[in-house]
Amino acid sequence: MASIRELHQQLVSKERSAVEIAQEALNHIEKTEPSVKSFLAVTADHAIAQAKQVDDKIAAGEEIGPLAGIPIGIKDNMCTKGVKTTCASKMLENFVPPYESTVTQKLIDAGAVMVGKTNLDEFAMGSSTENSAYHTTNNPWDLACVPGGSSGGSAASVAAQECVVSIGSDTGGSIRQPASFCGVVGMKPTYGLVSRYGLVAFASSLDQIGPFSRSVEDSALLLEAIAGYDPKDSTSLKVDVPSYAKSLRPDFRPKGKLKVGVIKETFGTGADKAVEEAVEKAVELLQELGAEIQVISCPRFQYGLPTYYIIAPSEASANLARYDGVKYGFRAEEGENLLDMYCKTRAAGFGPEVKRRIAVGTYALSAGYYDAYYLKAQKARTLIKKDFEAAFAKVDVLISPTAPTTAFRAGEKADDPIAMYLSDLMTIPVNLAGLPALSIPCGFDEGGMPIGMQIIGNVLREDQVLEVAHVYEQAAEWYKRVPQILA
Amino acid sequence: MTTAAPAKTEYEVIIGLETHCQLGTETKIFSDSATEFGADPNTHIDPVCLGLPGTLPVLNQTVLEYAVKAGLALNCAIAPYSKFDRKQYFYPDLPKNYQISQYDLPIAEHGHIEIELVDKKGNATRKKIGVTRLHMEEDAGKLVHAGTDMSGSAYSLVDYNRAGVPLAEIVSEPDLRSGAEAAEYAREIRRIVRYLGICDGNMQEGSLRCDVNISVRPVGQKEFGTKVEIKNMNSFNAIQRAIDYEIERQIDALETGNDTIVQETRLWDEGGQRTISMRSKEGSSDYRYFPEPDLTPIEVSADQREAWAAELPELPAAKRSRYQTDLGLSAYDANVLVDDRTTAEYFEAVVTAGADAKLAANWVQGDIAGYLKNEKKTLNDIALTAENLAELIGLITDGTISGKIAKEILPDLLEQGGSPKTLVEERGLVQISDASELEAIIQKAIDDNPNQLEQFRAGKTKLRGFFVGQVMKATQGKADPKLTNQILGKLLQG
């Protein structure tokens, strides 16, 4: 499937209609879905209707934006008015939102064509999409492997070219880690750049919506469309959104202007050899391309994971309290009284990982434990942030592997939550600090599975992150490889 | 307290109040639905106040303004930096199963108010009551049970119209020592929020709700006694009676051991005039408070605070004090007038227009108040301006008309307005104060009633009233009463 820019050109030149493009995507989905299973729901009628509107506009001679007519997948934890939004949970099996999330509204306004709602770990809790209450999603590069998570469906759908771009959410790595596993570009913007209104909350202070694409330019275009201040989200930032795509350059000039830091603590700490080597090679290439390389220490980086696993579950325990069978969603029918109804509803409606995190969060916030856990974690969070601040006083962007490994086999870590949690070791500190970061393919392991490199930027410096990623992408040319199933 | 008279000297009562005021904003604290009371169930709702998945709260800035103004009026320090927290508990009337409230950094703290208690003899006692804090939070919805309560019902229904209505919770220090003090404190809080125009203070509709914390201890004992919470009072009288009942119950429990005092919530049973146990607070709920991540911290700059402070009206305590010191009113009069801001402001306008303060007070809280009560009207409904009332009072003071005439024409003035002077002239109601003119009229009244005169002179002095009546009848009430009395006395003696 072509890029946004190519498709836009085809539409504007009337070489193809938006309906034709949508139909092509839907046909392809029909072919690939049985093996990849990216989607919880394919919204074919919806897509054709939206595409028709774009065609009408073109026919009327109206100008269309770059996203008009572009097939897109939406992670199923973003509310879409009139379209079921399940969060891959039994709890919301039949939940049809009566309102539209800000991000999907912006996409509708931009003329993007939603082809379906993508699979995820239940309530975005997980790193493999195996925690979906409905089905697992398979990695397009090796169907026996997981696509990563929690936005596994969004990543796989782009890798399998079921849509041009997709939207995910990232709380501790849920965009970047699956992007890495599926060999695509995935970006988590600065906390507050994209409105969270309508994103079903997992951990409010960490959640952020971002794009998946096969090229950096497409992510830049998609980010431009969804970013910006939203009065419905008190945590959204009052900033102007720059034109990320327009400012992308083919190379770094003048030489030495761009300073790249390699995070010392993300090497030699248990990551796969192939992963470390691939990222080191990528750094060498950046240097050849004119970047100045430094090794940077973030001494508290390693405390990110334990800090995250206090803060995120704490917030989640409150955010998920509303699913009680009273107002909407699933209700266990056999409750004898109110408490019994609550207990049976939540026991049957939530999966094990969600329950584990609710239990951890409830415990961490309990009287007598609050200071030792939640408060301490908040202090650690501040220190981790300070490490990044110190680093960005020296360099423009930071580099690390996105994940310690490539995609693992389905079922391999399903019974070992700690092993699963370690998958987000490199990405979590970025959420704690609220920074923008992107994962870009930087090679393949001996099994042919993609490896991702994480590029972290300073607050609101998405432009620099995208610039480095774009220059690297154009020089390294990893995007030329496609999964076997597409060959 | 009516009984346990000896115990009065032995026990000390410690009372604190938690008052919830619904802030009178048009829309809810975190969303756009209307706050209006009494609508059909679940018609003033939206995705945010229902806590639908993915929704986020946005603070209504008017709520912040009202809370800061209330904090300033309660003499609190306004926090330059405060925040919201989540208070977690499961209940069907709470859509998110947590309430967005303020925990350790409330918007206002360390305040006080002055209450004034006037006894039956008119003696006033003033007392300063500490205000621990004021914080903002969202109200919950309302449960409607098929039976009497949830456990006794096959089902319960929830109305979320009230969910998200803004509240200011005001917590007092444990400075109150009797039911009367507590009720007066609550009244003063209501006066203040009404003066500010931020809460209608309607206890029946629940826009002002008070919870009482109460304990007793032997005088001299350092530790507080076991604290009991009382809820469900929907009038100030009920607050007073509930406390007085509970004081007796607790002292009796301490002395006789017939009852026990446990940390619990009790309900005021209006029908039975008693408090009844609702639930134990032992091992009470852990609300697992933590900072609300969906809202950014609240910052109130010194400039903003001062701008809001400048908008505050003169508050009830200051008015009461001024009325007594500057205008020479009794504590009783000052309290009655100040109770309602419109009344106080009307009264002040009458005084400003030149009327004597005491007379103005009498008219406002006497005949006018009586009229308004009978007609079920308010001061906003009457046509009599403050200037006109001052004019009317002036007509009495300078002897143009009698008080009686003034009372007679008052209803017309209240309904139609206009100048009392013009009305008096039009209707020829000017008082007859000319001594010779009056003497002739009185002489005629005596001459026309020889029998009564004879009886009077034989000692039936009560008949003096009869002659006054005759004079008033002859003059259509216009005879100067003082002068009439003087002349009549002289002429009756012969």
In summary, what is this structure?
The complex is a heterodimer of chains A (487) and B (494). Chain A has 487 residues and is an alpha/beta fold. Chain A has helices at 4-12, 18-36, 44-59, 102-109, 152-159, 176-182, 216-226, 273-288, 304-319, 338-349, 352-364, 371-392, 417-422, 428-433, 462-476, and strands at 39-42, 71-75, 113-118, 165-170, 185-188, 208-213, 259-263, 292-296, 397-401, 437-444, 450-457.
Describe the protein's architecture and organization.
Chain A has 487 residues and is an alpha/beta fold. Chain A has a domain at 4-254 and 437-486: Amidase signature (AS) domain (Amidase signature (AS) enzymes, Alpha-Beta Complex), CATH 3.90.1300.10. Helix content of chain A is 38%, strand content 13%. Chain A has helices at residues 4-12, 18-36, 44-59, 102-109, 152-159, 176-182, 216-226, 273-288, 304-319, 338-349, 352-364, 371-392, 417-422, 428-433, 462-476; strands spanning 39-42, 71-75, 113-118, 165-170, 185-188, 208-213, 259-263, 292-296, 397-401, 437-444, 450-457. In chain A, helix 9 crosses helix 12. Chain B has 494 residues and is of the alpha+beta class. In chain B, strand 12, helix 4 and strand 13 (264-269) form a beta-alpha-beta unit. Chains A and B meet through helix 9 of A and loops of B.
Gyration radius over CA of chain A = 21 Å
CA-based shape of chain A = globular
Strand order of the largest sheet of chain B: 2-6-7-10-1-11-12-13-14
User: In order across it, which strands form the biggest sheet of chain A?
Assistant: 1-3-2-4-6-5-10-11-9-7-8
Following the backbone from N to C, one meets helices and strands of chain A in this order, namely: HHEHEHEHEHEEHEHEHHHHEHHEEH
Largest chain interface and its two residue counts? A-B, 44 and 30 residues
What is the structural class of chain B? Answer: alpha+beta
